[in-house]
Fold each of these.
Amino acid sequence: MTAPAGPMLVVLGGLPGVGKSTIARALLARWPAVYLRIDTIEQALRDAGALAGQGAGTAGNAGSACDAANGPDGPRVPNVGAAGYMAAYAVAKTQLALGLPVLADSVNPLPVTRKAWHGVALAAQVPWLDVEVVCSDVAEHQKRVERRQVSNVPGLLPPTWAAVRRHDYAPWVSGDRLVVDTAHCSADDAAARILVELRKLKAPTAGA
């Protein structure tokens, strides 16, 4: 299956442990794109200590796997607020303007983060696809979270199941997205479905 060409934005969202990054790897094997993973960006900010003592910023606390780890049942980790998302938006805009496709991997939990990603695509006048990744099998989701003892992002503390369950995640009010249920769909199948949807995309018109 030939991968679609040209700049476009795919935004993977969903709670920690549903399989976003696994789907991202499967998709990138078929569709070369700039890969922006919020967990990686946020952990780099923590490692640098660049945000010590700073607030969340105007976009608020968008939430990440490490932010989800905070709580009475787990160790405290520095909260970087909106900085990781803001950095990702800026990098995505630059890459899209250069004509490159972008795959963003984040919890994308709130209307403000979803609208911001749309704004990135609109500013670059490129099409975008929202993909909400879920795992409808709660027991399987819990097993995945609890079995992930070490993150593949160095220094990142995987969240506990209790932390994932209380994560701030707003339901989507728009049906204009692709929903992938990893309880019934493999990463390869999910990647194939995303590629099908990408071929249907059209660039937004000016002023949209």
Amino acid sequence: MPQTSSELPDFFARHRALLEQAVTATATRDHWTPYPESPSKSVYGEDAAKIGEAAFEERLGGRFELGISYPRVAPDEAVAAALAATGPWRDAGPDTRAGVAAEILARLNAASFEIAHAVRHTTGQAFVMAFQAGGPHATLSDPAFVTGRFATLRSRRPAPAEETPDA
């Protein structure tokens, strides 16, 4: 059963401060990142490194399938589905789209320690380099892109219609 809009999380509200900071940094061309590149306990929390390593180690020896299957879709069906989704996605508006994109980035960042262990084990990089490359650096341009599009779309919103008195 599909969720109603009142049951859906408001990702824009959740990430509004991040989006506003990114818009400001983009406009002023200042350096800003929501995801610090240091895997420090003071930045990511006391247990983040242990939790990330444990999550990675749980996957060792497996096939990384995670019990997820993907439907096979003919290209014409995929295109038709994408076209059908275009209207509702557009109608969701820039706030919703920016909020969803920011939520995706936040979830990726939350998995930075787990990703870092995978990068370390597959590339041979030292942990800090693997953390930076697989986490914050991998998403570094994404907040700027998301907020750049968000700011552009927001600036294109029509102004509310002014009420005119009846003549």
